[in-house]
Amino acid sequence: MMLRRLLAVFVARNKEFLRDRAALGWNLLFPVLIVAGFAFAFSGEPAPLYKVGVVGHTPQSGFFSTPQVQFIAVDDLAVAVTKVERHRLDLLVDATGGRYWVNDESPRGQLLERLLLGSGGGALQKQAVSGRIIRYVDWLIPGVLGMNIMFSALYGVGYVIVRYRKNGVLKRLKATPLSAIEFLAAQIVSRLWLIVAVVVVVFFGTHLFVDFTMYGDYLTLFIAFAMGGICMISMGLVIAARIASEELAEGLLNLISWPMMFLSGVWFSLEGTHPLVQQLAQVFPLTHMIDAARAVMLDGAGLAAIAPQLGVLLAMTAGFLALGAWLFRWE
User: Fold this and answer.
1) Residues 327 and 238 sit within 8 Å (Cβ to Cβ)
2) Would the CA dihedral through 11, 12, 14, 18 be positive or negative?
3) Cα–Cα dist 117/302, whole Å
4) What tens digit of pLDDT does each residue of 41-97 get?
């Protein structure tokens, strides 16, 4: 009877799923980890409503004791003024120098200016700046492009090499004059140019109808994404160095990629999250790639400004390549 056959397939499929402990565990554990991670990241007091940069010593009275305002010590005046222009700081005050900066196009800045002048700041000299607000989509684009590079690099190399090993392709290649270094180098170059081509198409394609912000130069942005891509590909090589099970490789790639996607600042800023989360994010190469790309696109940063992020990516790449080459086995 049709109902019996349907029931038999139903039972068999459920048994197949329940006997796959890796899949079962991942389906049960993953949502719990996501909820626990977000609960931990956003624990603590609510974030302040306004941000004011302060040059030099921050007084503890008057305007500077206003609740719901976060007063941030400023080391680089030029960078801080740029943040006021981009609406990333609502107001900038140099009490020692007798000046303050406000963006006349920012309603939040105008409100804080009135509060400052009404709290004994009338003697300060106004330095008006202008600049359009950084929209969420402007802020999001570098993160989305970085995330796309991450998935393409990890799964495009790690998963494919494991499949080659499982299907016996690597075993046949071992019998040829091809060395392991040549094989791995070819994988890196092949995947890298594909990633770069896709990023270029997506970048300019979305720019046509979204018109997102791009203050820096394209060559610097290209270098940031290219170095991030090489680092991600190298990480994928480590995963694929010895594993012969596609299921295990997929689980490990998920275990690496999903925390990076949520904790590297792709969708939301890590400012205001738990300090441990911010420190953990520095372990992920995606964090440094996105930070560098955002600095170029939103702040107009040059190579010198993003050198720290590029240095970290370079060091991670060297470590992943050395580890991957050492662990790699044809069979």
Assistant:
1) yes
2) positive
3) 36
4) 666 666 677 888 888 777 777 788 888 888 888 888 888 888 888 787 888 988 788
Distance, CA of 320 to CA of 135 (rounded, Å) = 36
Q: Which residues of 297-314 are buried (b: 16+ CB within 10 A; e: fewer)?
A: bbbbbeeebbeebbebbe
Q: What angle do CA 210, 199, 233 make, to 5 degrees?
A: 145
Name the nearest CA neighbour of 58 among 72, 68, 41. Answer: 72
Tell me the per-residue pLDDT of 127-175, one tens digit each, with 9 for 90 and over.
Answer: 888 877 778 888 888 998 999 899 888 888 877 888 888 888 888 888 8
Which residue(s) pair with 93 in the sheet? 54, 100
Q: Give bridge partners of residue 242 from the DSSP assignment.
A: none
- Angle CA 111–117–119, to nearest 5: 100
Pairing of strands 91-94, 50-55: parallel
CA torsion 272-277-282-283 (nearest 10°) is -170
- Burial bucket for residue 66 (CB in 10 Å: 0-12, 13-18, 19+): middle
Whole-structure pTM value:
0.74
CA dist 249 and 159 (Å) reads 6
CB atoms within 10 A of CB 227: 23
**Strands (DSSP E) along the chain, which ranges?**
50-55, 69-74, 91-94, 99-103, 125-129
pLDDT in tens, 93-113: 887 888 889 888 888 888 888
